[in-house]
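Tokens as discussed.
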């Protein structure tokens, strides 16, 4: 299993970043490689999210259970169905004097050997692009 951890400082509030992460239905508008996104069974604290990912000739769709927590302000994602043997990611948003700190952790293991061989080695770069996309989206929406 691979783990990637990233902490970034954001000029936006923890609440703004939390809301951005929870807007799964918009992911296909700004997340690299995301070709479709939708949520189902949404409540105040949980939802199911379906994402379609495409990179070159690879196409995968997966469903995640997304849990949103107010104290601490955080989002946890676990795969419900898809190409991973294990998928868990966790966002935590902490207020600072100048915005917030965004802590992101991703743990994953592909169930499909071909995906593991092709994608796993570049996941650090993929995560960086993913987080950069959220930062750019925050600038677009909140500036």
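Sequence:
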């Amino acid at each position: 299993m691979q783990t990637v951890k990233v902490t970034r400082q954001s000029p936006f509030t923890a609440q703004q970043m939390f809301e951005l992460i929870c807007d799964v239905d918009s992911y296909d508008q700004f997340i690299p490689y995301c070709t479709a996104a939708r949520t189902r069974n949404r409540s105040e604290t949980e939802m199911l999210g379906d994402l379609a990912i495409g990179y070159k000739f690879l196409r995968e769709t997966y469903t995640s259970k997304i849990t949103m927590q107010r104290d601490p302000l955080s989002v946890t994602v676990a795969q419900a169905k898809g190409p991973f043997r294990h998928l868990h990611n966790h966002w935590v948003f902490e207020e600072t004097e100048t915005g917030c700190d965004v802590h992101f952790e991703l743990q994953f293991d592909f169930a499909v050997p071909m995906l593991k061989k092709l994608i796993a080695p570049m996941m650090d770069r993929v995560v960086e692009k993913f987080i950069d996309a959220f930062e750019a989206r925050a600038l677009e929406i909140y500036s």
